[in-house]
């Protein structure tokens, strides 16, 4: 504890964002470059080095938060980077994309604003790259064992890096043309610039991990044959089967899934396209779904120049303070939070009819109507109560030329034949069944990440990747492993 009075004398100060009018004209990250580092030392001083640091438990990676806070406070960046990377393969990803359940579990958050754990993490990760504290770590010798990892999202990449460093020969198969999964084509550039992803991929290549892009296992490569060629197989394909909205008018043109829309915008940023075929430019956009994916669509539509953007959330507007009875500390509370995209929509007044920023809360879609050419022109909604029952007399109509469905995902996609060809069993909710050791019913085949857990956070995805790597290493070595396993397959976030 570098400053015993830091939490008493220093207020919380977050990484400032660039002015709205400036940042919506480009796709760069929303925060002010270079403005974080001067804040971090005093913010790290606010950490109380609690006797029982609950931030460890609320973070599935078990990040050693008080330790690297103290090291940052003392400006020992090399040691801080070592402690951070000891539990997290990709802290520059989580430092930008994770909603920080660790901060909800910060002991200081009982009666004060939490320590800016996420910002400190991001500062350490960025400093590590700048100072060369994140070198590649190829194994000293190879085990002679081979592993195929299917899927290159955070789970697949974390598993591949851990197994490669353990000495196994690992090949990662990705159906898209670039590595990264949803981090590549689902996360907008303004949340994380993709050069950060490329940097990690090059590190992994230098360590010996092989990558096979534009390869759909189950269609381009026979899944059973792939299993036969390797000593183990890890399925980390994610939960890509999106949820539908079965209401009248769904068949109209102009209604698309979020993951049909977002990848095209990312491809424009990659230079593959001059403009998106689904661009929101000049259109009246309605986003159905109040989660992070909906917010990603919102920020993207604003940057594309939408005429208006409204986001529908079926839940009532949450409060700004934790309800200690319903969601006691240290659980992650459902609060009214203003993401960068919502801040932009509020300041630019993209949705004059919205309750707050661009959101309509407690709103459920009834139907869509269109024009004579079969293109959507309006979304009809109704207010709902806490039980999602329609409130009589509250029907409204929103004009809409482009509707984006951001309703989440139900499990892995089965169209490629991977699951059926391997003979994998599924849980009732559509995820891949596995035992306490991440193993499926098929010998040598393991499942991890959203494909088996269900839709979750990036920090849980990385934790799954590290844990399944330990399970695979134990399987390959006959029962022992030196790899850490931060979580088990049945662990879940802390709730009431």
TrEMBL record:
Amino-acid biosynthesis found in the keyword field: yes
Pfam families: Fer4_20 (PF14691), Pyr_redox_2 (PF07992)
Keyword Amino-acid biosynthesis in annotation: yes
Pathway listed: Amino-acid biosynthesis
Domain 4Fe-4S ferredoxin-type: 36-69
Keywords: Amino-acid biosynthesis, Glutamate biosynthesis, Oxidoreductase
Record Gene3D superfamilies: Alpha-helical ferredoxin, FAD/NAD(P)-binding domain
SUPFAM superfamilies in the cross-refs: alpha-helical ferredoxin, Nucleotide-binding domain
NCBIfam families: GOGAT_sm_gam
Protein name: Glutamate synthase subunit beta
């Amino acid at each position: 504890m570098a400053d015993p009075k830091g939490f008493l004398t220093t207020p919380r100060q977050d990484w400032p964002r660039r002015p709205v009018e400036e940042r919506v004209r480009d796709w760069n990250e929303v925060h002010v470059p270079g403005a974080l580092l001067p804040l971090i030392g005093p913010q790290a001083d606010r950490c109380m080095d609690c006797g029982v640091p609950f931030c460890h438990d609320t973070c599935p990676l078990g990040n050693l938060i008080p330790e690297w806070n103290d090291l940052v406070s003392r400006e020992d960046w090399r040691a801080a980077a070592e402690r951070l990377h000891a539990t997290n393969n990709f802290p520059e990803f989580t430092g930008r994309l994770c909603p920080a359940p660790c901060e909800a579990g910060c002991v200081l958050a009982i009666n004060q604003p939490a320590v800016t754990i996420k910002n400190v993490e991001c500062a350490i990760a960025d400093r590590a790259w700048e100072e060369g504290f994140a070198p590649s770590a190829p194994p000293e010798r190879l085990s002679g064992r081979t592993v195929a990892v299917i899927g290159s999202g955070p789970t697949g990449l974390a598993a591949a890096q851990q197994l490669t460093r353990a000495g196994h020969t690992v090949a990662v198969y990705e159906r898209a043309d670039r590595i990264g999964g949803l981090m590549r084509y689902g996360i907008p550039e303004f949340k994380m610039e993709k050069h950060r992803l490329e940097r990690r991929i090059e590190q992994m290549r230098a360590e010996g991990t092989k990558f096979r892009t534009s390869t759909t296992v189950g269609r381009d490569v026979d899944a059973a044959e792939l299993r036969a060629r390797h000593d183990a197989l890890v399925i980390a394909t994610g939960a890509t089967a999106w949820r539908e909205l079965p209401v009248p008018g769904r068949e109209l043109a102009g209604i698309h899934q979020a993951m049909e829309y977002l990848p095209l915008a990312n491809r424009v940023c990659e230079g593959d396209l001059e403009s998106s075929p689904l661009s929101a430019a000049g259109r009246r956009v309605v986003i159905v779904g109040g989660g992070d994916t909906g917010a990603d669509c919102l920020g993207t539509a604003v940057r594309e120049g939408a005429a208006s953007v409204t986001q529908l959330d079926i839940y009532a507007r949450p409060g700004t303070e934790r309800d200690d009875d319903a969601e006691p500390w240290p659980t992650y509370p459902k609060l009214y939070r203003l993401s960068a995209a919502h801040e932009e929509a509020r300041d630019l007044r993209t949705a004059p009819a919205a309750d707050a920023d661009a959101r309509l809360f407690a709103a459920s879609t009834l139907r869509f109507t269109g024009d004579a050419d079969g293109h959507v022109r309006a979304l009809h909604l109704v207010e709902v109560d806490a039980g999602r029952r329609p409130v009589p007399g509250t029907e409204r109509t929103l004009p809409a030329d482009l509707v984006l469905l951001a309703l989440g995902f139900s499990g892995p996609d089965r169209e490629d034949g991977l699951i059926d060809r391997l003979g994998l069993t599924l849980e009732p909710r559509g995820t891949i069944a596995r035992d306490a050791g991440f193993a499926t019913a098929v010998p040598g085949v393991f499942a991890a990440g959203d494909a088996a857990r269900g839709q979750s956070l990036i920090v849980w995805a990385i934790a799954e990747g590290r844990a399944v790597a330990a399970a695979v290493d134990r399987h390959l070595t006959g029962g022992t492993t030196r790899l850490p396993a931060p979580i088990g397959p049945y662990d879940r976030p802390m709730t009431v």
